[in-house]
Amino acid sequence: MFKPLPRKGCIERHGTGRNLQLLPNIYEGDYLSLVKPASHYPVANALTEAQILELHSLFQQEWWSVGRSLEDVRTMLQHSTLVFAISDPDTHRLNAFARVLSDRVFKALVLDVIVHPMHRAASLGSALMAHMMGHPALSKVRHFELY
Q1: What pTM does this model have?
Q2: Structure confidence at residue 44 (pLDDT)
């Protein structure tokens, strides 16, 4: 079970259980009928060249990541412990991304969680987090921090 800690975005693993609490969907109306459910999308641990360009473009749309150069994004991807990407199975366009830096025992820092604006109603961020927490390379990690 995960216990929220007093600091921002921290989750601590207790025992071996993996119980994520998902936030309720805040979107309403016809828009939801256009969005595919998160289970429709496979999660990958690598990006294609086209998806790297799409990730760089997504970063330019957010206040917290605007100004990142394409070269820096490539370097970031090379030096991350794990990356997680959700793309459309038909078009292969990048819909969501997150990355982890970890020692694989004590700490895992979850960074750069980003979802394309047109797919934010599909709970792709939650799907990425669930997949990340269940990844075999992170199964022994005791403490996850989301930044």
Answers
A1: 0.75
A2: 95
